[in-house]
UniProtKB/TrEMBL annotation:
<dbReference type="GO" id="GO:0003677">
    <property type="term" value="F:DNA binding"/>
</dbReference>
<keyword id="KW-0238">DNA-binding</keyword>
<keyword id="KW-0226">DNA condensation</keyword>
<dbReference type="InterPro" id="IPR000119">
    <property type="entry name" value="Hist_DNA-bd"/>
</dbReference>
<dbReference type="GO" id="GO:0030527">
    <property type="term" value="F:structural constituent of chromatin"/>
</dbReference>
<protein>
    <submittedName>
        <fullName>DNA-binding protein HU-beta</fullName>
    </submittedName>
</protein>
<dbReference type="InterPro" id="IPR020816">
    <property type="entry name" value="Histone-like_DNA-bd_CS"/>
</dbReference>
<dbReference type="GO" id="GO:0030261">
    <property type="term" value="P:chromosome condensation"/>
</dbReference>
<comment type="similarity">
    <text>Belongs to the bacterial histone-like protein family.</text>
</comment>
<dbReference type="Pfam" id="PF00216">
    <property type="entry name" value="Bac_DNA_binding"/>
</dbReference>
<dbReference type="InterPro" id="IPR010992">
    <property type="entry name" value="IHF-like_DNA-bd_dom_sf"/>
</dbReference>
<dbReference type="GO" id="GO:0005829">
    <property type="term" value="C:cytosol"/>
</dbReference>
Length: 98
């Protein structure tokens, strides 16, 4: 699902809100989460999950074409940990069709 499909799906559940407003909300959400993670803080949405950052150490990798070693710099990467309600919703068995 891409962003426009997400906007359409949300719009179907909230028909009184314009698609433009939904798109603006999604953009504001992603920008806000990005800025919070950039500061090193955590975003926790109880039941849904939490967004946080993790440090990845510098390491040595290989170029798959040449086999030459190369150094990969240390970095900070975003991570998402799903909450229990999200896990339950994803693992809920689908009803059988008759």
């Amino acid at each position: 699902m891409n962003k426009s499909e997400l906007i359409d799906a949300i719009s179907a559940k909230v028909p009184d809100v314009s698609k433009r407003a939904i798109g603006d909300c999604i953009a504001a959400f992603t920008e806000t989460v990005s800025n919070i993670l950039k500061k090193g803080d955590v975003v926790m949405l109880v039941g849904f999950g939490s967004f946080k950052t993790s440090k990845r150490a510098a390491r040595t990798g290989r170029n798959p074409q040449t086999g030459a070693e190369l150094k990969i710099a240390a970095s900070v990467v975003p991570k998402f940990s799903p909450g229990q309600r999200l896990k339950d919703a994803v693992n809920k068995p689908k009803p059988k069709k008759k």
